[in-house]
What does this fold into?
Amino acid sequence: MSETWMKINQKHLMASINHVKTLLKHPIGPQCEPFLPIEASVPVNDYDGAVVGLPSIETLNILFGLSTFEKQIIVLCAAQEIDPEIKMLIAEAHGNPNMVYPTFGLALSCFPNAHWDAIAPTSPLRRFRLLEVNLNTAASLTNAPLRISERVLHYLTGIFYLDSKLQGIIKPVSSSDQPVESHMRIVDKILSIWQDNKGKIPIIQLCGIDETDKLAIAQTALAIRDLNLWQLSAELIPQKPREAATLAQLWTREAALFGAGLFITTEDAPADAPTQKAILRFIEQLSNPVFISTRERWQTQNSTLATVTLQVNKPLKTEQRALWQTNIKSQDANIQNTVSALVNQFNFNASAIKAATNEATLHGEEAGLSVQEVLWASACAVSRPKFLQLAQQITPKATLDSLVLPEREKCLLTEIIAHVAQRHKVYEEWGFEDVSSRGLGISALFSGSSGTGKTLAAEVIAHELHLDLFRIDLSAVVSKYIGETEKNLCKLFDAAEDTGAILFFDEADALFGKRTEIKDSHDRHANIEINYLLQRMENYRGLAILATNMREALDTAFTRRLKFIINFPFPDEKSRLEIWQRIFPTKTPTNNLNFAQLAKLNIAGGNIRNIALYSAFLAANQNTPINMQHIKRATQIEYIKMEKPLTGNWHHENQH
It folds into this structure.
């Protein structure tokens, strides 16, 4: 606040207090005019040529529709905290030296135009908690001590802050980017809705998965009406009605004082009926502009709320292209091709695009990386934090040459890579998504025993496509609580949608199984979970892979919904020989390794890798090249882990 306004505010508040003191000294009849017209005694709009706002007491009066009598009660209670003389005047007016505090009875007897409902629970003074009535120390309501809210007292003196009871619960929304054109059309709809509704304005329900875009839309709409935006997580709304009512009263007061609207996000709130009911019950008690952010539309027919639902999608591809072009600082001749590739792969909003280009600028000087490579890596990095809480990132280094598979299976892998790489051209440029929006995702099932190369194959795909790879352990995602598994999967896919990262669902047997015969409610809900996962995989804009060690445990009703099924066979001797010949990096020193003998060990590729790595540590500790003795010891350790016997003639062991 300006120094000019602070002077005016202080002068006006003291004039108001002096006016109340005069009324205490010279009580007048309830129908008389005020002793002193204080509004006329101090200039409030023009001071030394500067245009300033109204003093706080007058703003408070307007915001909460106070009568003159109610305003004088507020000033009386404020004077008790500010003016040392007021307590003596109050005691004299009471005719009792011990009653040095304001009461409603005192106000009735001293102030003009008094009315009894000023102290009712529904009155602005109590409804908005402008003052507090201490009924515990008085025999009657009229004799109960009155005290101004500390928050309101500071407001009257020109000190602005959020009530301490709301700190940590409701927070201001920082400035956001200007919404793109398609989102500005939503802003215009919101303004039109507010303009058409003269009474209590409807709740605006913003549906969609992108919280940042919804916040920007809400903030822009409020800013046009000179209001600011504050945010509340729905999980912090009390379930108990009385506690929720207190929170609603406090926020309604704060919203009026700050000139604010509220954005309620339901992202972290439980998706159950009691929670939704509590949230809607809380919103019903608010009178300021309210936005509720949900992923899917909430049904509010059983509520008294007037609700308008608006769908918020990501910026259009043309808008994303323009945002990339605006933010990229490069003179590279091929930058347009880079922008096209970024737009085709990543589905970003304005803030994510800005973050990605800023990240690229910071790392643009790294040796050996082109502008295109830096931008691509930065785009992947921007969305990565969303995944780290839900999945394990795997850094893909394996290439097609490092994967030993039969020719048919290897061909299927290259076709998966082609499907992902050409997804944009086929679905969007060639119009397949215009015909039907169903089943546009690319899903695959990798089946085979442990160590046969399922994870390695996922790495190969990610490496070839230059995409992030995330491993999700389905046994950890599946919850015994009904509805929680779908919620976990929903968060995962929502986070993945921006990047089209490769999702590798390991341990699929934890969720899939022969469940067509429903015996109880758990089986029925397990089918719901499976169908939800398959539905999200079918609509996911990237590649989702299910991995299982037991193909026979999966019902054909589920597997036929997958686009690719690749079996990873247990390697035969020829394949094992090829794996052994490729397992040691070119920089690794070796000495007289008999790969033909090693290939007779009837083990999977994963076991071969473990043996190779263990033998490398043994050799490194002895500072010698890896030899057959190192591999023999490593093999013994691996067989102990597998709980399999290793025969004396170890290289001829053929038990599987």
In short: DSSP finds 28 helices and 16 strands in the chain. Confidence is low (pLDDT under 50) at residues 30-51, 651-656. The two ends are 81 Å apart (CA to CA). The longest helix spans residues 3-25.
